Amino acid sequence: MANEFFDALPIRQYVKTPRGWCERMVTARDGELEFALAPTPVPAALIPASREAAPEGGVYETAPAAAALAEDIARIVTAHGGGALIVDYGYGASAGFAETLQAVGGNAFADLLIEPGEDDLYAHVDFAALADAARRGGAAVSGLATQGEFLVHLGIVERAEQLMKSNPASARDLLIAIERLIAPEKMGTLFKALAITQAGAPPPPGFTA
Fold first, then answer.
1. Phi and psi (nearest 5°) for 72?
2. How far apart are CA 30 and CA 52, in angstroms?
């Protein structure tokens, strides 16, 4: 099971410019770190066709380490059974062109380069890339499901009703908690769920396909 794992792995960013896609890099000026674009565009083959429609300034993020790990996990599952469940902030094939790399320190968003090594860095998970990597590893993929869909299919609503009947005094708190987890305007769609299983296995609980 993976949560807040794939989003912490390193990413690479490419920015659409008039001269092509240029990698976003880190440099130093007057003792301060700052972002800069590589002077030479990357080969067109590195950018998926789905990114060609990006406007100038659009960003394409890729996480080679995450894809490699997903493929390794898939090979292990294929050879030995079991499965993998990944739940995190993320997006599927219909990703936009905005960057998702963020820094958090002291429970608040922070500047990415002010205190390197002190703040938490993370980027939203490209679940479409993980799914493709898992299939290359020979495994089956279930999802992508939103967290709301996943928990509803697992029976969170029915379980909440049982708990509210046996704990009437906690009913309001339970409703608030459930709403936070499954409501589309809260965590219900921000988080996604993906499962990796052996080829031919039925979808695991919580997934319809």
1. -65, -45
2. 36
Whether residue 165 contacts residue 101, with contact meaning beta carbons closer than 8 Å, is answered with no
Which tokens is 33 given? 């770190």
- Which secondary-structure segment (H or E) carries 194? strand 191-197
pTM: 0.91
Amino acid at 142: S
Tens-of-pLDDT digits for all 209 residues of the chain?
999 999 999 999 999 999 999 999 999 999 899 999 999 999 989 999 888 889 999 999 999 999 999 999 999 999 999 999 999 999 998 888 999 999 998 889 999 998 888 999 999 999 999 999 999 999 999 999 999 999 999 999 999 999 999 999 999 999 999 999 999 999 999 999 999 999 999 999 999 87
- Asked whether the CA dihedral 157, 159, 162, 168 is positive or negative, the reply is negative
